C-alpha cells in the first residue's frame, strides 16, 4: 500500500491486486492505517482473489464486481472501464489514473497493461513500478511534461510501439530529438537524461514515455 491510495478519490483493485493489499494491510498495527486502504470496488474475473480476502473486503463494504463472464478483456481493462463509467463527464478532462503493480512479473501481463494505455488513449493513465513510470503520449497533442526532480529521473526513454514515428522533436533532454525517425529495428531513445524541469514532445506517432523513479526509502 502507498500514500497514493489514501489520497485517491476512488480506489479500485483488480482481484489479484486485492490479495497484495490485504497481505500488506495485515502487517499494519494501526487500525486507521488499515482502513485507509479499503477499496471501494474489487473488479475482475475473480480467478485470483483468495476466498478469505473476498470475504473480508465484502464485509468492509467494498463492492465485489464479478466480471467472470467477460474473458475478452484483462482485469486492468475492466478496472479502467469502471473508472471511466463512474467519473462524471465534467471531471473526465482532469482525471488521472495511477496504476500500481502493473509492471514487472510475466511479460505478457506487462504487455497487456501497456496495451491498455493505447485502448484508453483519451485518458491519462500512469503505470507505476518501484523503479519507473510509463505513460502514453498520444500524437494528437503537443506534450509538456513537468519533472518532479525530487522523485523522478534522471533517466528516461521515449519510443513508439505499434507504429513508427517519422518525425519526433523534443526539448529538455540531454540528447534531444529533432525531426527524428524512430522505429523498432532502428533508432529508439533509451537511457536518455532529463536536463530541465520541463520536457516537451511533439510527434506524428503515439509514443511511450518512461522515467526512472528515485528510491525514497
TrEMBL record:
Stored SMART domains: TPK_B1_binding
Purpose: Catalyzes the phosphorylation of thiamine to thiamine pyrophosphate (TPP). TPP is an active cofactor for enzymes involved in glycolysis and energy production. Plant leaves require high levels of TPP for photosynthesis and carbohydrate metabolism.
Coiled coil ranges: none
Pfam family, one: TPK_catalytic
Protein name: thiamine diphosphokinase
Main location: cytoplasm
UniProt cross-references to SUPFAM superfamilies, sorted A to Z: Thiamin pyrophosphokinase, catalytic domain (SSF63999), Thiamin pyrophosphokinase, substrate-binding domain (SSF63862)
GO CC terms: cytosol
